[in-house]
Specification:
Rossmann fold, globular, Ado_hCys_hydrolase_NAD-bd, 2 domains, 418 residues, 15 strands, NAD(P)-bd_dom_sf, alpha/beta, S-Ado-L-homoCys_hydrolase_CS, adenosylhomocysteinase activity, 17 helices
Length: 418
């Protein structure tokens, strides 16, 4: 039995889902293929993902392939109640999600999704898989395999695998080129700045924007912030990524130094306490703090609360102002959670088209391949990544060259000299 906020919102949800679907041609093609081939017939899927219009496209595709789906929210602040209602009332999924639910409700919903005794699990941050391995070990025997679509989740899964704790194979969908290159770089890059501007209406031109982390998400953010006229400072722990940022013309500083200079701070590392009490103590009056690194631990919100003598909640949507003892005001967006989903609408549907196409095709592959996989973190087969890219190019009417037989021979023979 689903647990959603308001079933009467279904009509509005359907309209928005259909709008997003227009920008997801790859997933539409896969849905048509699944409806004909039924690769997931009779299988049960439990997912912990953002409840958005784009996610609805994936759920409908899995259903077209024959799966029954139970869905919990991976972030209460990103949950769209009308989308949840549409998925339940119009599309026949089980959904356990309410916008703004607390931590207790969040985990209760994960447990409810797991009560369906799934064959496969789809995760966004590893909380569902973690719950299976801690609180619901009784269900581990029924789960055949899973997928993870975030960098943070993949990091946690690798830790589980190294310790011998992971009990079933999980595919790192996040690590495909068509996911991390486009979703992380182009999706996060645009949607994060969208969330910051919606929440604050700040002008980024002329501001110093400090970006913590220069992975794909950080690169996308740095490129787009610079394009909007900001001075961009990057903080990093990886010498290679720091060198890359430097060679691209960005300033690179330790956070302790960047904290003094920044007007806007954005964390995208997947780690905790990236902005800590020492950094908060030296920031400018009016500094804006935002996170797009999945969990609400990258900015030490507890330290910020302890330092504040006064807090003005909701001075703008998803915008809280913390007044410190010396009169400085620090502005926290989306409670330190994902600003691009809480204060905006997440990635554009055209980006999620590829990410969810990877998910759908990987699920279909797992339906036949899971028995041959060890309990470890596995890569998506290269042919799936290539197929998604090909379908996306076709949908954009972009053509590319093909190798001739002589070129194929040349690339695959060591006998041909210079």
């Amino acid at each position: 039995m689903s647990d959603i906020a308001d079933r009467s919102l279904a009509y509005e949800g359907v309209k928005r889902i259909e709008w997003a679907d227009r920008s997801m041609p790859v997933l539409r093609q896969i849905r048509e293929r699944f409806a004909a081939e039924r690769p997931l017939d009779g299988l049960k899927v439990a997912a912990c993902m953002h409840i958005t219009t784009e996610t609805a496209g994936l759920i409908r595709t899995l259903q077209a392939g024959g799966a029954s789906v139970a869905l919990a929210a991976s972030n209460p602040l990103s949950t769209q109640d009308d989308t949840a209602a549409a998925l339940v009332e119009e599309y026949g999924a089980e959904v356990f999600a309410r916008a703004g639910t607390d931590r207790e409700g969040y985990y209760a919903h994960i447990h409810q999704a797991l009560e369906t005794e799934p064959d496969f699990v789809l995760d966004d941050g590893c909380d569902l898989v973690n719950t299976l391995h801690t609180d619901r070990t009784d269900l581990l025997g029924t789960v055949k395999a899973g997928c993870e679509q975030t960098t943070t989740g993949v990091i946690r899964l690798h830790q589980m695998a190294r310790e011998g704790a992971l009990r079933f194979p999980v595919v790192a969908v996040n690590d495909t080129d068509t996911k991390h290159m486009f979703d992380n770089r182009y999706g996060t890059g645009q949607s994060t700045l969208d969330g910051i501007v919606r929440a604050t209406n700040t002008l980024l031109a002329g501001k110093t924007v400090v970006i913590a982390g220069f992975g794909y998400c950080g690169r996308g953010l740095a490129e787009r912030a610079r394009g909007l006229g900001a001075r961009v400072v990057v903080t990093e722990i990886d010498p290679v990524k720091a060198l890359d940022a430097t060679m691209q013309g960005f300033a690179v500083l330790p956070m302790a130094e960047a904290a003094v200079e920044g007007d806007v701070f954005i964390t995208v590392t997947g780690n905790r306490d990236v902005v800590n009490a020492d950094h908060l103590a030296v920031m400018k009056d009016g500094a804006i703090l935002a996170n797009s690194g999945h969990f609400d631990v990258e900015i030490d919100v507890r330290a910020l609360s302890d330092m504040a003598v006064e807090v003005h909640h909701g001075i703008r949507p998803q915008t809280d102002e913390y007044v410190l003892a010396d009169g400085r005001r620090l502005v926290l967006l989306a409670e330190g959670r994902l600003v691009n989903l809480a204060a905006a609408e997440g990635h554009p549907a055209a980006v999620m088209d590829m990410s969810f196409a990877d998910q759908a095709l990987t699920c279909a592959w797992l339906a036949s391949a899971h028995a041959s996989l060890s309990p470890a973190v596995h890569d998506v087969p290269k042919e799936i990544d290539t197929e998604v890219a090909r379908l996306k190019l076709d949908s954009m009417s972009v053509s590319i060259d093909l190798l001739t037989p002589d070129q194929e021979d040349y690339l695959h023979s060591w006998r041909i000299g210079s």
